[in-house]
Specification:
Strand order of the largest sheet: 2-1-3-4-12-11-10
Number of strands: 12
Bound molecules: glutamine
CATH architecture: 3-Layer(aba) Sandwich
Largest sheet: 7 strands, mixed
Shape: globular
Order of helices and strands: EHEEHHEHEEEEEEEEH
CATH topology: Rossmann fold
Strand content: 25-35%
Protein backbone atom coordinates (compact mmCIF):
# COMPACT_ATOMS: atom_id res chain seq x y z
CA UNK A 1 0.00 0.00 0.00
CA UNK A 2 1.38 3.41 -0.83
CA UNK A 3 1.83 5.85 2.02
CA UNK A 4 0.55 9.39 2.25
CA UNK A 5 1.99 11.93 4.65
CA UNK A 6 0.58 15.22 5.86
CA UNK A 7 2.69 18.21 6.79
CA UNK A 8 1.11 20.56 9.31
CA UNK A 9 1.02 23.82 7.35
CA UNK A 10 -0.02 26.48 9.85
CA UNK A 11 3.35 28.19 10.18
CA UNK A 12 7.02 27.41 9.72
CA UNK A 13 8.96 25.63 7.02
CA UNK A 14 6.37 23.05 5.97
CA UNK A 15 7.20 23.52 2.28
CA UNK A 16 10.74 22.30 2.89
CA UNK A 17 9.33 19.05 4.34
CA UNK A 18 7.07 18.67 1.32
CA UNK A 19 10.12 19.11 -0.93
CA UNK A 20 11.83 16.22 0.92
CA UNK A 21 8.77 13.98 0.56
CA UNK A 22 8.51 14.85 -3.14
CA UNK A 23 12.16 13.92 -3.51
CA UNK A 24 11.31 10.52 -2.02
CA UNK A 25 8.22 10.25 -4.29
CA UNK A 26 5.95 10.09 -1.25
CA UNK A 27 2.46 11.47 -1.72
CA UNK A 28 1.92 14.40 0.66
CA UNK A 29 -0.36 17.28 1.49
CA UNK A 30 -0.23 20.52 3.46
CA UNK A 31 -2.63 20.00 6.38
CA UNK A 32 -4.78 22.90 7.58
CA UNK A 33 -8.09 21.13 8.21
CA UNK A 34 -9.03 18.14 10.35
CA UNK A 35 -10.71 16.35 7.39
CA UNK A 36 -7.35 16.24 5.63
CA UNK A 37 -6.02 13.83 8.27
CA UNK A 38 -8.47 11.12 7.25
CA UNK A 39 -6.47 9.23 4.64
CA UNK A 40 -2.99 9.92 6.01
CA UNK A 41 -0.46 7.48 7.46
CA UNK A 42 1.53 10.09 9.33
CA UNK A 43 1.95 13.76 10.13
CA UNK A 44 5.06 15.93 10.15
CA UNK A 45 5.09 18.88 12.54
CA UNK A 46 7.65 21.34 11.21
CA UNK A 47 9.89 23.88 12.88
CA UNK A 48 8.68 27.41 13.43
CA UNK A 49 7.70 29.02 16.69
CA UNK A 50 5.97 26.65 19.09
CA UNK A 51 3.91 29.37 20.79
CA UNK A 52 2.56 30.55 17.42
CA UNK A 53 1.96 26.99 16.27
CA UNK A 54 -0.06 26.32 19.42
CA UNK A 55 -2.26 29.40 18.90
CA UNK A 56 -2.91 28.38 15.31
CA UNK A 57 -3.57 24.74 16.24
CA UNK A 58 -6.39 25.93 18.46
CA UNK A 59 -7.64 28.58 16.01
CA UNK A 60 -7.86 25.92 13.28
CA UNK A 61 -9.47 23.38 15.69
CA UNK A 62 -6.73 20.88 15.00
CA UNK A 63 -5.50 19.91 18.49
CA UNK A 64 -8.20 17.31 19.25
CA UNK A 65 -8.25 15.79 15.75
CA UNK A 66 -4.45 15.38 15.97
CA UNK A 67 -4.86 13.61 19.36
CA UNK A 68 -7.38 11.27 17.73
CA UNK A 69 -4.98 10.70 14.85
CA UNK A 70 -2.30 9.67 17.36
CA UNK A 71 -4.71 7.30 19.14
CA UNK A 72 -5.25 5.60 15.78
CA UNK A 73 -1.56 4.65 15.87
CA UNK A 74 -0.45 7.01 13.11
CA UNK A 75 3.15 8.21 12.76
CA UNK A 76 4.53 11.57 13.84
CA UNK A 77 7.76 13.35 12.96
CA UNK A 78 8.48 16.64 14.75
CA UNK A 79 11.45 18.82 13.88
CA UNK A 80 12.66 21.61 16.15
CA UNK A 81 9.46 23.43 17.29
CA UNK A 82 7.65 20.24 16.19
CA UNK A 83 9.67 18.26 18.72
CA UNK A 84 8.58 20.73 21.43
CA UNK A 85 4.93 20.18 20.53
CA UNK A 86 5.33 16.40 20.67
CA UNK A 87 7.28 16.35 23.95
CA UNK A 88 5.82 15.20 27.24
CA UNK A 89 7.62 17.83 29.33
CA UNK A 90 8.84 21.35 28.60
CA UNK A 91 11.23 22.77 31.19
CA UNK A 92 9.85 25.75 33.13
CA UNK A 93 6.77 25.99 30.96
CA UNK A 94 3.16 24.94 31.08
CA UNK A 95 2.57 25.69 27.41
CA UNK A 96 0.40 23.26 25.51
CA UNK A 97 2.07 20.10 24.19
CA UNK A 98 0.81 16.80 22.84
CA UNK A 99 3.06 14.62 24.99
CA UNK A 100 3.25 11.80 22.44
CA UNK A 101 6.93 11.10 23.20
CA UNK A 102 8.42 10.76 26.67
CA UNK A 103 11.12 13.44 26.39
CA UNK A 104 11.84 16.62 28.31
CA UNK A 105 12.82 19.64 26.23
CA UNK A 106 14.33 22.96 27.09
CA UNK A 107 13.18 25.60 24.60
CA UNK A 108 15.97 27.67 23.02
CA UNK A 109 18.39 25.38 24.87
CA UNK A 110 21.40 26.58 22.85
CA UNK A 111 20.61 30.27 23.22
CA UNK A 112 19.05 32.89 21.01
CA UNK A 113 18.82 33.34 17.22
CA UNK A 114 22.48 34.48 17.04
CA UNK A 115 23.50 31.21 18.67
CA UNK A 116 22.02 29.15 15.81
CA UNK A 117 24.63 26.84 14.33
CA UNK A 118 25.37 23.92 12.03
CA UNK A 119 27.19 20.73 12.94
CA UNK A 120 27.99 17.30 11.51
CA UNK A 121 26.55 14.66 13.77
CA UNK A 122 26.95 10.91 13.86
CA UNK A 123 24.07 8.49 14.26
CA UNK A 124 24.69 4.75 13.86
CA UNK A 125 21.14 4.14 12.72
CA UNK A 126 21.71 6.33 9.65
CA UNK A 127 25.00 4.84 8.49
CA UNK A 128 28.60 6.05 8.57
CA UNK A 129 28.12 9.30 6.68
CA UNK A 130 27.55 12.17 9.16
CA UNK A 131 24.29 14.09 9.11
CA UNK A 132 24.64 17.81 8.54
CA UNK A 133 22.41 19.26 11.24
CA UNK A 134 21.09 22.83 11.19
CA UNK A 135 20.05 24.14 14.62
CA UNK A 136 17.91 27.31 14.63
CA UNK A 137 16.97 28.46 18.13
CA UNK A 138 16.78 24.77 18.74
CA UNK A 139 15.46 23.07 21.83
CA UNK A 140 17.63 20.73 23.84
CA UNK A 141 16.25 17.35 24.75
CA UNK A 142 17.52 17.03 28.29
CA UNK A 143 15.95 13.74 29.40
CA UNK A 144 13.92 10.84 28.11
CA UNK A 145 11.97 7.89 29.43
CA UNK A 146 13.06 4.24 29.24
CA UNK A 147 10.88 3.47 26.24
CA UNK A 148 12.56 6.13 24.09
CA UNK A 149 15.37 5.17 21.70
CA UNK A 150 18.09 7.79 21.47
CA UNK A 151 19.28 7.79 17.85
CA UNK A 152 21.79 10.65 18.13
CA UNK A 153 23.22 12.73 20.91
CA UNK A 154 26.04 15.19 21.45
CA UNK A 155 27.37 16.98 24.53
CA UNK A 156 24.72 15.50 26.83
CA UNK A 157 21.81 16.56 24.60
CA UNK A 158 19.65 14.18 22.64
CA UNK A 159 19.31 15.26 19.01
CA UNK A 160 17.18 12.50 17.47
CA UNK A 161 14.80 10.30 19.46
CA UNK A 162 12.06 7.79 18.73
CA UNK A 163 9.34 6.18 20.78
CA UNK A 164 7.16 3.71 18.91
CA UNK A 165 5.76 5.63 15.95
CA UNK A 166 6.93 9.08 17.06
CA UNK A 167 10.23 10.52 15.80
CA UNK A 168 11.76 13.87 16.73
CA UNK A 169 14.87 15.82 15.83
CA UNK A 170 15.90 19.08 17.46
CA UNK A 171 17.46 20.28 14.19
CA UNK A 172 16.08 20.84 10.67
CA UNK A 173 16.81 17.87 8.35
CA UNK A 174 14.40 19.37 5.78
CA UNK A 175 16.80 22.26 5.13
CA UNK A 176 19.47 20.03 3.60
CA UNK A 177 19.37 17.61 0.66
CA UNK A 178 19.75 14.61 2.96
CA UNK A 179 16.54 12.58 2.99
CA UNK A 180 17.70 9.92 5.48
CA UNK A 181 15.57 11.06 8.41
CA UNK A 182 12.45 11.37 6.28
CA UNK A 183 13.09 7.91 4.79
CA UNK A 184 13.57 6.51 8.28
CA UNK A 185 10.27 8.05 9.42
CA UNK A 186 8.43 6.52 6.49
CA UNK A 187 10.04 3.09 6.92
CA UNK A 188 9.94 2.79 10.72
CA UNK A 189 7.13 4.96 12.06
CA UNK A 190 4.22 4.53 9.66
N1 LIG B 1 12.71 28.34 19.41
C1 LIG B 1 11.52 27.89 18.76
C2 LIG B 1 10.44 27.51 19.80
O1 LIG B 1 10.68 27.51 20.95
C3 LIG B 1 11.80 26.71 17.84
C4 LIG B 1 12.69 27.15 16.70
C5 LIG B 1 12.59 26.34 15.46
O2 LIG B 1 11.65 25.57 15.24
N2 LIG B 1 13.54 26.54 14.57
O3 LIG B 1 9.35 27.25 19.42
Amino acid sequence: MSKKIGVLALQGDFEAHQRMLNKLSIENIAVRKAEQLEDLNGLIIPGGESTTLIKLLHAFDLADPIKEFYKMGKGFFGTCAGSILLAKEIENSDQFRFGFIDITVERNGYGRQVDSFEDDIHAKEFGKRPIHAIFIRAPKITACGKSVSVLAEKDNSILIAKEKNVLVSTFHPELTDDTRLHSYFIDKCI
